[in-house]
Structures are given as structure tokens and as C-alpha cells.
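Human: Here is a favour to ask of a fellow structure person. Comparing notes only helps if you start from a blank page. I am asking you to supply a protein in sequence and C-alpha cell form. Write it directly below this note and I will take it from there.

Assistant:
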Amino acid sequence: MSLNPNSFIIKLLVVTMVMASVMQKIIPHYSLARWLLCNGSLRWYQHPTEEELRILAGKQQKGKSKKDRKYNGHIESKPLTIPKDIDLHLETKSVTEVDTLVLHYFPEYQWLVDFTVAATVVYIVTEVYYNFMKPTQEMNISLVWCLLVLSFAIKVLFSLTTHYFKVEDGGERSVCVTFGFFFFVKAMAVLIVTENYLEFGLETGFTNFSDSAMQFLEKQGLESQSPVSKLTFKFFLAIFCSLIGAFLTFPGLRLAQMHLDALNLATEKITQTLLHINFLAPLFMVLLWVKPITKDYIMNPPLGKESIPLMTEATFDTLRLWLIILLCALRLAMMRSHLQAYLNLAQKCVDQMKKEAGRISTVELQKMVARVFYYLCVIALQYVAPLVMLLHTTLLLKTLGNHSWGIYPESISTLPVDNSLLSNSVYSELPSAEGKMKVTVTQITVALSSLKNIFTPLLFRGLLSFLTWWIAACLFSTSLFGLFYHQYLTVA
């Protein structure tokens, strides 16, 4: 069976139109993004009105204040101030769909979550189709959807990061730049580690890519030289990794703060255990690629004189994929606990204010309370976007890396297609007068087959394994630093 680009484009358009129609009909009524926020379990703190603050402060008088000044016949009143140690208790209210309309970044949050759900459904349907029909040379439509999800997630994180650069007074810009340089150095250090310790398969994949590209160039009559050197490849990969690390800096720092607050709120042991597992999930993912700790121990367990492998390498790769997906599902399940811990910051700020001396204006107090709920979707995006990146990078790793979902996967042939036989047979059968369009299709088919032989599963397996590991490593590094900062450096 030959690669048919027309068939691929038609199927992609059909699936896209069907899923767009489904999203248009279903999302207004059933939206996972809205359900995560508006199912009744999240409660936000309402800011007090000025009249309520007047009553609490004992200022019931209305009209002109004694401190009002008159300029050019106009009365200019100073803003009302109240003591900071006022006995204030905020009222709570369940988050409703009407409340979400005023939230900053709510459209971006809803689009990312709902589109991720649609892309995941397309991926599952496509995997079922490929499992039963077993097409050998047909391009996988779900890859386009996974790449779109990753591009949307990176775009959202980039947009959030640019806001920190616009802040003049705070040190957010310096934090992003510092962590960006830190992750660049870290990426360069990781990329020089041998595969005896970190078994991404990146070296093997790049070598296979270089050899395939040189063979392709030789067939085209060009100079047989690798299109890119290994040093250049790793340098640009390290730059890309530093950008990802900078984008994931504040999501990791925020996760650490929400984790501590959620632990203080949790009363059941099972909830606390799940919160700890959720926080350590990126560490578990990182250790899955540390060869002496996981793969070497499983493949060659110390069981006396005879060392019997507990499973095959293919089974280990499959279990690794399933474990990452299960940890992503756990993180999604614990999302509400973390968001509620964030919303409780409003009351926490008020309690902290009561310990201070002096006075505060009613406007500043209202802003301090309202700001927490206003940025709820920003925090939700910082929680969801890394999760989306991990999930769909793993899905790409499974498909492009030629892995299997079965615990005992069958051996999958990765032999390249003989393009010369394909092209010769098709050209010989084409009439000279009728086959102009068919010749064009055939040429595109041969080109796609050649690209498939250059960009092999070995290359994608190494590259996507490294990117999956890197996202988890960045999340754990930033959240661990945030945990240390909020526990030991922040003055309570």
C-alpha cells in the first residue's frame, strides 16, 4: 500500500470538519473546562463593599468627611481608609458560569482544555482504527492534532511569560531570565551524558538520521554530507529546552505554593498521599529514563547467579508510557484541590493584613481580595498547560516512536519502503496522455516516502523521549525550588 497524500488530506479535512461540528454543538452545553471550574466544588471569596467596611470600621456617617478639601469650588475627598486589624471575614460563593465571564484568560483556558479533549478523542479513535485495520503505509491523522495541541500550549505559556516581562517593579523578569540560563546550562550538561545513564536513544536516533540523509543526498547526486552536525543539533536543542524551562518556571513555582496550601487544607490521609504523589509525579517520570535505576534493574535484576529479565525492552517502554499517562490523569484529578488552595489566598491575605499595624484604603483592600479570583484562569492555565504538553508529547512518542499500547507488544517492522520499486512500477503503468495529475501525486508520494526513510522512528523515539523527560525535569526543578522558597525563605 502506497502513501497517498490526497487520501491523507481528505481524511484530515473530514475528521477536522466532523470534530469542529461536534465541538460547536457540544461545548456550549458540555465543556470540561467549565465543568472543572463550575461544578460547585470551588468557592471564591467576595470582596466586601465599601458600606460593609464603613460599618465594620465604625464609620456610619455619610456625606462629606472632615478631611475633605475644597479646590476651585469643588469638593475633593480622600479615599476612605480603615484599620488593618479590622474584624473582617469574607463571604464565599460557588464559582458559576456567569462568574467566569470576567476572568482573565478564560477564553484561552477554555479553548486549550476543550481542544485538548477533542484532540485526545481523535487520537483514541485513530488508534482503535489503526489497531484493527492495520494500515501499513498510511499517515496518521492524529499526529496533526497532537502537534496543534502542543503549539497551543506553548503559545499560551509564552503569552503568560510575556506578562511577567512587562512588570517593571517586580522581579519576575529576572527570575525568568535566570531560570532560562540555568536550564540552558542544564540542557547542555544533560546532552553530553552518555546513554549508559540516560537512555533516551538520542545519539542512536541522530546517527540514523545522518546516515539516512546522506544516503538520500547520494541518490540525488548531491554531496554526501550530513545536513547538520551533532554539535549544532544539540546546541539548538538546548536553546529550545531553555525556552521551555523559562516558560515552565512560574507554573512550577505556583504549583509548589498550591501544594503546600492544599496539604494544609487536606484532612484525610488518602488525599494527602495523593497530593504528595502528584507533586512527586515529575520526579517519577524523570527516573523512568535513568538507566541504572530503572531499566538496568528491571532487565538485569540481582537475583543471585542467574539474572532473569523481568520483562522485555518493548514491554518496559509500554509500561513507561502507561505510567506517564496515569500520573497525568492523577494530576488532572487533583486540579480542584490546588485551585481551591489558590482561591483561599484571599482570606489568607486578609488574615496576614490583620497582623499588621496601620491603615489601608478600602479600594486597595477590595483589589487585594478581588485580584485572587480575577486571575483564577491564569493559575488554571499554569496548572493545565504543562500537563497537556506532557500528555501529548507522550502520545507522539508512542506513535512516532513506533511503540505499542499492549503490555506484550508484537514486533513491529520498521523496514523502509523501497521507493525505487514504487516509483518505477507506478510510472510504468501510467499512460503518457492521461497521467499528469497522477504523476504529480506519485512524485509527492515518493518524496513523502523518502522523508519517512530519513525521519525514522529511531530519531523520533530519541527526540520525543528527551523532550518528555525534559518537561518533567523542568517541572520538578522549578516546583522543588518553589517548595524550598515558600517553606524556608518566605517570612510567614
The first strand starts at residue 43 and ends at 46. The beta strands are 43-46, 69-71, 74-76, 81-83, 91-94, 359-361. Residues 263 and 273 are 9 Å apart (CA to CA). The longest helix spans residues 457-489.
